[in-house]
Amino acid sequence: MATSDLMSELQKDSIQLDEDSERKVVKMLLRLLEDKNGEVQNLAVKCLGPLVSKVKEYQVETIVDTLCANMRSDKEQLRDIAGIGLKTVLSELPPAATGSGLAINVCRKITGQLTSAIAQQEDVALQLEALDILSDMLSRLGAPLGIFHASLLHCLLPQLSSPRLAVRKRAVGALGHLAAACSTDLFVELADHLLDRLPGPLAPASPTAVRTLIQCLGSVGRQAGHRLGAHLDRLVPLVAEFCNLDDDELRESCLQAFEAFLRRCPKEMSPHVPRVTSLCLQFMKHDPNYNHDSDEDEEQMETSDSELSETESEDEYSDDDDMSWKVRRAAAKCLTALIASRPDLLPDFHCTLAPVLIRRFRDREENVKADIFGAYIMLLRQTRPPKGWLEAVEEPTRTGSNRHMLRTQVPLVIKALQRQLKDRSVRARQGCFSLLSELAAALPGSLAEHMPVLVSGIVFSLADRSSSSTIRMDALAFLQGLLGTEPAGAFHPHLPTFLPPVLACVADPFYKIAAEALLVLQELVRAMWPLERPRMLDPEPYVGEMSMAILARLRATDLDQEVKERAISCMGHLVGHLGDRLGDDLDPTLLLFLERLRNEITRLPAVKALTLVARSPLQLDLQPILAEALPILASFLRKNQRALRLATLAALDALAQSQGLSLPQPAVRTVLAELPALVSESDMHVAQLAVDFLATVTQAQPTSLTEVSGPVLTELLKLLRSPLLPAGVLAATEGFLQALVGTRPPCMDYTELISLLTAPVYDQTGDGGMGLHKQVFHSLARCVAALSAACPQEAARTASRLVCDAKSPHSSTGVKVLAFLSLAEVGQMAGPGPQRELKTVLLDALGSPSEDVRAAASYALGRVGAGNLPDFLPFLMAQIGAEPRRQYLLLQALREALGAAQPDSLKPYAEAVWALLFQRCEDAEEGTRSVVAECIGKLVLVNPPFLLPRFRKQLATGQPHTRSTVITSVKFLISDQPHPIDALLKSYVGEFMESLRDPDLNVRRATLAFFNSAVHNKPSLVRDLLGHILPLLYQETKVRRDLIREVEMGPFKHTVDDGLDVRKAAFECMYSLLESCLGQLDICEFLNHVEDGLKDHYDIRMLTFIMLARLATLCPAPVLQRVDRLIEPLRATCTAKVKAGSVKQEFEKQDELKRSAMRAVAALLTIPEVGKSPIMADFSAQIRSNPELATLFESIQDSAPAPSTDSMELS
Q1: Is 507 helix (H, G, I), strand (E, B) or coil?
Q2: Which of 225, 323, 630, 1060 could form a disulfide bond with 248, CB atoms 3.0-4.6 angstroms apart?
Q3: Greatest extent of the chain over all pairs of C-alpha atoms, in Å
Q4: What is the model's pLDDT at position 637?
Q5: DSSP structure class, residue 885
Q6: Which of 1172, 1116, 1163 is nearest to 263 (CA)?
Q7: Are strands 1044-1049 and 1052-1057 parallel, antiparallel or unpaired?
Q8: Measured between alpha carbons, how far is 886 from 880 in angstroms, rounded to an integer?
């Protein structure tokens, strides 16, 4: 009892022991370890764990010394207890990564004793215990024990020849952990030892010895496979030959070794893939004790009656000594590793592996079948296109062909799984559902024609109450997925079959099944009776029973929270989609929603359900609940729960749109009173929804707004002055303002509203420049334009007033900027008279001393011109030719005109504009050339088939500046949305990328900028050309000595690298490729260039540190293989010192570099095996021992636990 009480006390964080108490407790516990009562001994051992963290280091060492002495005792029980005690102490020691030296000191203390215990041949029990402890120790603290590695290796290698199997097994495990942590020289010694001792397959050797050596290679492969790459050419042929020996255990070990090699060294295994594949295919069928029926017999069996098949399955062959299933399982796992590590070989896998895997779905051993399913699931996952691709536009040709091959396999898969779906084994059916779910996700719509088989399998599992609930949940999850991927028509004939079992599951007492079934029912309602299409199936036979089942759950109050929420959501969908068929059930359901709104636990799902009902096009009558529901919703707007506020605003907007005038006015006023507080900069999303709702209410019930329009407008005008105003909030504001003046009679006078809007600018005293942020002027101008559009009769007068303000010498800079930006939007609506005057005013403003006024006038000139091309465009072109000093501003105006005008209206002027722009391509100013390039890009979009081919001639014959401008203009043809020009552009991309061979640096830099934009916004343009482009790209990452020159600056010499910008652009492209084209990259080749970049200029190092962090997350295996080489440049950066007397910027740059390098180190440490690398362990110790680096590292770990997932915008 006393020991038990001590255990309870030690587990409390509050306990503090003084030195004397520590000594007494330790002494007493060590004595209790020798107690005659086994239960007391067990409790004493359990106390050691928490005690280790409570006592000082020397007491821990006392405990360890005593335990080691006890391990050598003659008493077997004491030896066992001491072994358990040592394992307990080791597991509780703080890891070396925390900076504590205790673990290292303790391990160093016991390593020598363990080594001598292992070397003793006479006491096997002691040997086994010592090997166990050593394995534990090496797995946790391998690297810090570096000084013992050589002695441990020489102690463990002889144990591989031990006559005892248990000793050999434990030695194999310990050697695996040692291989991960030891130095390169010791690793080579270990690998050579294993290879030298492996005899040729024809040489006489003991099967036991060979098996042990192969198992050891497998263990080393799993723990430190990334270091085996250099030895694989010797190793793989040897291991492959041993597969031919008639020894199933040996074959299993060989295949497990291959699996480890494939996962850890995919690049080095490339030459051996065909051989490994053929071995896996051979041994996946390896079943010597069982004669599978021929295909003809199997066909007959499938069509035979189910009772017969059940009898057959009961009489399956069973043999306890049969080891062949382990070989088949190892082969299947090896194939999974092969498919996962080589996505580039998918077309071959579909031809060679898929048919064999499908045939082996019938394997008689459950474990093997699960792994064969796993291999085929991996093939399906690799075939799925990455998320975010627009299927028709973005799907690369290779993925398309893979999916075509997969489509041909679907009937074979269904045929192979038909019997399995009704197998008595739950695990087999779960495997079927997992596989079919992946298949449906990889090929949506492909299972529609096989629905009878699938529905029959689902119903079989839903009705199976004899086994665990898991299979029913899996069947429901699969059905839900099917409803999302297959066309609704495929389910119509089967609805009477599978709806009753689903409804039975809704009523199931186990909450997880009920929740899953409600989700299925919700998806079923959405899929069978969609709102956006006419009903193809009469809901009458089903709606009553569905409503009854859900209402039973909705009314019950003693349910799990998840079931309550799902029932509310499901009922919301049922009412929204089939409310017109509910009849007398509708009003009670609405009252139930009202009841759930009042309950704090269910109010959020109830609000969302109400939104669904309100948005329904069925125009249901919600009068029974509106008067009570609106005040409740109004109270939610005051709650601190953001999700509830957002959902409530969405619900209110939907109610205002659907119910309109029938909303009770007193209740609406209650809601509106809460809104001014929500129109605030503190939460822009809430503000946007609040303004959207206001606009809806203004149109539906303008009279309700009289009391709140003042306070709301005050808050809205404050919001418009925010420089961070998102586009969504601005669009909502425009809609609200248009609603205010658009009602009959208007809620607010147009002139008064314009005055309120422009007051912040017009009321500024003096002319101290703009006063407000530039973005605010754009926002206000958009609002002025929105009001003019809502009152067209006022547009001409507004335009005239703005023209007067713009040309008045007394107007401030802010007033002029606002006037021009507003005219850019309003000018197109003004008549020809104001437009003629406007032309003169805008032209004069281009000479204004204020840069902001000039930019606003240039923008306005282009936007107004776009609405009146015949008058403005020839005038604008004439001015560009006549006014070289204003050329930049006039070209900007042309750019706006080309962007805003309709393509058809531009066609008559295309030739003249084209000629004008190409005359400006050789301008000395890079800014001017950049605007010209954008203009050319916008002009090409007017008539791509006619204008795009002309680029060839310009690239072949033009001057360097012209070539660079042409390539830059191509960048403006790429958008992140599908565009008709995409197909044409794709055919030219290869030619444009040839400009990477151009001798001019600026042309190459422009080509890289175009390539980066394509990779970032539309990867499908370049994905198929990467084999040709990547060598050119990698060439640009190299430092070219001929571009480095020295410049004398007074007494100092300064080095200038003209190639830096091009290299930086190339590395930016490499980063973008990681995001969108990872599958097409040879990561090992890619890493070579990243490695070079780690030693380059400051800007490039910053980029490569980010890339390294990203690579550590995306593809850890290749990074792990070269981690020792990657550490050195990181260490050099972290330990570099800035010269004394350097300027402040140098210190800041170095700090930023260190921080970025540390982020890369933190990302590398997320790869589990990296910590075992001796060089990384040494660097980690160096970081911990340096206070500055340790603080920096801790701050990075605290602020960004997953630094490598950050994305970087480089387009």
Answers
A1: coil
A2: 323
A3: 113
A4: 92
A5: G
A6: 1116
A7: antiparallel
A8: 8
